[in-house]
Amino acid sequence: MQPEISWKANSVVYHLYVRSFKDSNNDGIGDLQGIINSLHYLSKTLGVTAIWLSPIYPSPQVDFGYDIADYKNIDQIFGTRNIFDTLIKKAHEHKIKIMMDFVPNHTSDKHKWFQESRSSKNNPKRDWYIWASPKSNGQPPNNWLSHFGGSAWALDATTGEYYLHLFNEHQPDLNWRNFLVEKEMLNILRFWMNRGIDGFRVDVPYVIYKDPLLEDEPLNSNYMEGKHDPFDMLLHTKTSWQPEFYQLMKKFTEVLQEYKGKFMVTETWTDLPGLIKTYNAAGWKYFQPFNFSLITLPWRADIHKQYIDEYERALGDLYIPCWVLGNHDKHRVASRIGKDQARIAAMFELTLHGISFIYYGEEIGMIDGKISKKKVMDPYEKTSPGLDLSRDPERTPLQWDSSENAGFSNATPWIPINKNYRKSNIATEMKDPHSFFALYQKLIRLRKENPALSEGKYIPLFEPVENVFLFLREKDSQRVLILLNFDDKDKKISLDFKDAKILCSATMKEDNKLIDLNNFSLRGNEGYILQL
Ligand code: GLC
Ligand code: CA
Questions:
Q1: Residues designated as active site
Q2: Which residues span the domain enclosing 520?
Q3: Which pTM value belongs to this model?
Q4: Which of 43, 307, 396, 460 is most buried (most C-beta within 10 Å)?
């Protein structure tokens, strides 16, 4: 069954790191059946409208699925193609759309294309990857770096040439300048849409094209050794954001438009002009580059206000923004800004105009886990240790309840459960009307019920007092005012509006009260959604 409607601007997508969501067969690893068993939770209890699954394709799991060995199958640790078909069907019955992770820049070195490619210089698949001869002194062809540390080139003994890997050496980069690669990859999108999935999240698309001359990248003069990620030693002018990237985004959207109701979001780490350029290149409402500003900008009302006002102005009615507070690559929002402000962030994200992505566990304010040196799983930490780059802390299993292993599995999980799980878990929070979970439930419900919040325009207002964010959402006769205290200090505020009803408060302790907006005090760490 294909969902008829296309994606709405009030969609709420739940980003689920499959390994850590729910284990159904007790091998300590989350799986597809675990998701099927949790559809009621996702659709009814929490109320999300879509899920994005981290990569579930067959993979040696060097980079936990971002090293794909077969694009058209399912890894047996997660299930089978039949189980995936069942998940698609059941999810649609629950009115939940499904997005897959699409990883076009690189494959696993175990992929049969790479096995062929590396076998000889004249193999027909040789040119499917990026090969180059060593310099006369045997060194790599240029100074390009791997995101995970060290050179981006690995010498392959069989043919004496280097292959390019912008990530781990077990993740060789595909050569998209070869037309056959492009054709095959676009067909993979069709393959999964034909099976009924509703959209894709695209992994690092801005690095797909590299300088064909393989010139060195310039040094970054701001780089400080020991303080910054070694990858930032260079300015990546030759390995990212090449002109062909924009053309490719257009091609992606054209493939999606062969179908109905599809959607695509891309992982795009760039500034505001870069995002606008990406939108314009793709030129399709249901294509969105992730806006990561809620993760990357300093947590201050004025800074966010300036950014969002400008972004909304630039997008106009043409495009929909796409917001996110966290993901499997970044420390959890409750660890970055504290649990109290994470409630403000949730209220902020879910009242902004645009699609919101919730990273699993954010609904209970999950914080980063502490992973001992012995238990490091992330290849990033293994190759660039000690710089707080590890992504393990934000990948610990979802805390379902207070039973052993947090109700995630009956076996020892693949990565340790966060120690706070006996206090912080879904079952416990569900019993508390003021909990984080209660706030998420209510925010999602309000978005659906109030036209101003689901379809209304974002109307910027002034900053009433320092570090307080104020904006309006408006649709026909409904006007909703959102007021967020980015501080832990109380603020005296006077607004030119009359009485209003609090639809929801960040602490959930002031809901349904009437308030005189001419003169009131907003507590520290408090935020209101107000019906005018
Ligand atoms: C993206 C993914 C990250 C992965 C990398 C390589 O940044 O989000 O988890 O390691 O690409 O595929
Ligand atoms: Ca399992």
A1: 203, 267
A2: 456-531
A3: 0.97
A4: 396
